[in-house]
Amino acid sequence: MFRKILIANRGEIAVRIIRTCKEMGIPTVAIYSQADRDSLHVKFADEAFCVGGPASRDSYLNIPNILSGADVLQVEAIHPGYGFLSENARFVKILEECNFKFIGPSQEAIELGSHKARTCDAMKTAGLPIVGGFRENTEDEQELWKRVKSLGYPVMLKASAGGGGKGMRIVHNEKELAKMVPVVKKEAEISFGSGEFYVEKYLEDVRHIEFQVVADNFGEIMHLGERECTIQRRHQKVIEESPSPFLDEPLREKMAEAAIEGARFLKYRNLGTMEFLVDSKRNFYFIEINTRIQVEHPVTEMVFGLDLVKEQIQLASGKKLSLKQLQAKPKGHCLECRILAEDIDRGFMPSTGKIDGLYIPGGLGVRVDTHIYSGYEITPYYDSLLAKLICWGKDRKEAITRCYNALGEFNITGIKTNIPLLKRIMKDKDFIEGNFTTDYLEKMV
What we know:
Helices cover about 35% and strands about 25% of the residues. It is an alpha+beta fold. The strands form six sheets. It has an eight-stranded antiparallel sheet, with helices on both faces.
């Protein structure tokens, strides 16, 4: 097992990884920006060092500074969490050259997964259904117009190197196409360093459902069920749950087989998530693979009783899968609500400032993953995620009830949050009945 692990991240996921390392008896090293000097992950780690200024590019994306500190503190392995460098193939290559172990998939898998268009082409070759469209980048505007017209509106413009809902726009006609092409290019360039994009047919009235896959270095691969991620705002997930209230058992088995087959085709190892869209007729389409641990991984942990971060670390150290597919038995139902620093009455504007009061709910089946505390300063430099409320129940009805009650207890003062909206969703008839698609929140707010 690793003698020391550096967590190349911040916030709740850094705290989450540190806790598992402590359980495994592995010393940890935290990194932090000047703005995060008083963050909880810094306090919880065995050692910590500053990697730069408040901006991400100066700190959490500063590879030379991260590696310098890792070398001085004799780190053996690096866990990237999610976001930042977690899906940066160049980072993985540099780690290998510097004799650090990366806790995640291979450089090749990350490189392919970070280019959505190439990933879809690979999955098509593997026999998985994909959304219709054209995935080669084109700079010829006349050719673009011609091909989009042939495909038929509406279409989705997607950054080829995209992720996290960025670089994506729905286009309904030629006028919108002319307006959105430069927008997507610019956003893609800023966010991912490449202005390349591709075009897919936009599917309406769909669900977003992902499957958790786990693979070791010995060719063994399994799935840990699905997560329903349909409740989104601007392509960013807000509520996730497992199992999906939409899937029946035959479709669940079919999608799970496709997820495993796709991962096997890629010779995937460690944790990954195969993401799909499912239409009203229960046809499913592969859209992307996330080559990292997901924000919503706790719902799978609660349903399967498995620590996914521990699994990642063990797999990266060369161990085999801790269980076989037939041993993976889901139990009950779990929901996750993302608690965000947003002012829902002002168009979901980010809310910053000092948290001057905090009460975190508890009780049977209630888990909260967070990095905040009373007196903690919310800055404008990073994403708005404050906490994840994860509630388990023997069935979906009990999980929703626990979630609503826990949201009622969750008290954060000094800043605005999206808790009022989450409570509304938990009481909404369509949500309770499982009757929703990806445009649910657009219609609700």
